[in-house]
Write a structure and sequence with these properties.
5 strands, globular, DNA-binding, single chain, Serine Threonine Protein Phosphatase 5, Tetratricopeptide repeat, DNA Cyclobutane Dipyrimidine Photolyase, subunit A, domain 3, five-stranded parallel beta sheet, 20 helices, Rossmann fold
DNA sequence: CCCCTGTTCGG
DNA sequence: CGAACAGGG
């Protein structure tokens, strides 16, 4: 009699789940297990938005399991203790999971595999969340990639050989009779007071939500993706990032669906498909980097920046909180930060703009921004967050050179020309003419008053002079160049 | 997945 | 005088 644990982590789906599929082939009884371990020694404990998502995703998974006469077993505690207890209690013979790439998880999983393997449990782990795992490709000199373009070129050569997604199983196996489980509610993942209304109205965590979102994106947005993806005022992006983070859908499924969706379509559609795939490529690249350079979640990949004087300006709590809460007086930045706080998500173009302001103009350490994103994003992901912040801060490997300092006015005019995005999140600016919406402080006072805006009252004065702070940043950078 | 400054060029 | 381009941080 064989009994398997399928240890769910961030692979909260039934389709294209190799750990689950293998268990179904090789065992008679299956325990679908989730272990909540809030005390793990990570500097990156999931934030409130992420926990909110996790709660709903676990709920969705447990419902899906129930529909097939199985159920999710929820435990809490140190993972090896929990696993050992269940393995002994239920005579578990097989342990299956899908791999993750956060440095301490890689290490922990390795220890667990060793320990249980030598205790006679068959342990096996799989790739469920990447197209190409970090150790599968290297540069010509056999090193990890540090530059995106050659990385992605190499990946593209291998796309054709990537496995098709595994179909959703049409029958599961029951867990042992009477097996105990904590309730989902007892994990306390939901916020104490209800700030989550903004989230509930736009997101649908869980596998069903993920598949619907992919379908909707492919059917209604993909052909316009290449032109719309940079316009934060349009719903042009896939918005799959939180679903991907929790593994409610995997990139193999997207790749496969993308192939089917663009088969035989005109060039424009293929440009869009390629463009979208490239964004998945950045996700792959981020995981490649965090795996091979596990220090980078706190330390710059580019050694020139090890002694860079981050935090060269006032570093005051008020300045930081003005940035966090969208009160900097710079509309495109405030719009982004408010979108983040209300929805747990921010358009990628705007992420770059707000990050550039924080690290270059306001002179804060990039980790300060990374932490805020970590706590507020529903898609908070160590690999992507690290890549993103090091990229804009200029200290990553293939980062934007430090001297690429975004000008939020120019960015606003270019990517939000009519101010649709800005006005959506900053209704105070509803009546200001389009041409001034990105820099209200440069507008003639009388015109502002006609628009019913008084800077410093209804909307803040800018907290930073863009020109001089830019000069300051460049002069600091000069010293380490 | 940039910005600024200076220069040239066409109207 | 704006658009287009080159050069450099």
């Amino acid at each position: 009699m064989t009994c398997a644990i399928v240890w769910f982590r961030r692979d909260l789906r039934l389709t294209d789940n190799p750990a689950l599929a293998t268990a179904l082939q090789s065992c008679r009884t299956i325990i679908p297990l989730y272990i909540h371990h809030p005390d793990d020694k990570t500097p990156w404990q999931p934030g409130a938005a992420s926990r909110w998502w996790l709660h709903h995703s676990l709920y969705n998974l447990s419902q899906a399991l129930r529909q097939q006469s199985s159920r999710l077993v929820i435990e809490r505690g140190e993972v090896n203790v929990v696993l050992r207890r269940l393995i002994n209690k239920h005579n578990v013979t097989h342990l299956f999971w899908n791999r993750l790439y956060d440095p301490w998880i890689v290490e922990r999983d390795h220890v667990i595999q060793q320990a249980f393997q030598s205790a006679g449990v068959h342990c096996q782990c799989f790739n469920a969340s990447l197209l190409i795992e970090p150790w599968k490709i290297t540069t010509r000199s056999d090193l990890p990639f540090r530059v995106f373009t050659p990385f992605w070129n190499r990946c593209q050569q291998l796309l054709a050989s990537i496995d098709h997604p595994i179909p959703r199983p049409d029958a599961l196996l029951p867990p042992p009779k009477g097996i105990a489980s904590l309730t989902l509610e007892s994990l306390g993942l939901l916020p104490a007071h209800t700030w989550d209304e903004g989230l509930t109205s736009i997101w649908h965590p869980g596998e069903t939500g993920a598949l619907n979102q992919l379908r909707r994106f492919l059917d209604t947005r993909l052909t316009q993706y290449i032109t719309d993806r940079e316009i934060p005022g349009r719903a042009g992006t896939s918005r799959l990032s939180p679903h991907l983070h929790f593994g409610e859908i995997g990139p193999r499924q997207i790749l496969h669906a993308l192939g089917a969706a663009t088969m035989g379509s005109a060039d424009h559609g293929n440009d869009s498909a390629r463009g979208y795939l490239r964004e998945l490529g950045w996700r792959e690249f981020a995981h490649h980097l965090i795996y091979h350079f596990p220090e980078t979640h706190h330390s710059p990949l580019n050694p020139n920046f090890h002694h860079f004087p981050w935090s060269w300006r006032d570093e005051s709590a008020e300045t930081l909180s003005a940035w966090q809460y969208g009160e900097t007086g710079i509309p495109i930045v405030d719009a982004g930060m408010r979108e983040l706080r209300h929805t747990g998500w921010m358009h990628n173009r705007v992420r770059m703009i707000v990050a550039s302001l924080l690290t270059k103009n306001l002179g804060f350490h990039w980790l300060e921004g990374a932490r805020w994103f970590w706590n507020t994003l529903v898609d908070a992901n160590l690999a992507n967050n690290t890549l993103g912040w090091q990229w804009t801060a200029g200290c990553g490997a293939d980062a934007a050179p430090f001297f690429r300092i975004f000008n939020p006015i120019r960015q606003g005019k270019r990517f939000d020309p009519k101010g649709d995005y800005v006005r959506r999140w900053i209704p105070e600016l509803a009546t200001i003419p389009d041409k001034h919406v990105h820099a209200p402080w440069l507008v003639d006072k009388r015109l502002l008053i006609n628009s019913g805006i008084e800077l410093g009252k209804s909307y803040p004065q800018p907290i930073i002079d863009l020109k001089s702070s830019r000069q300051q940043a460049l002069s600091h950078w000069h010293r380490i160049k």
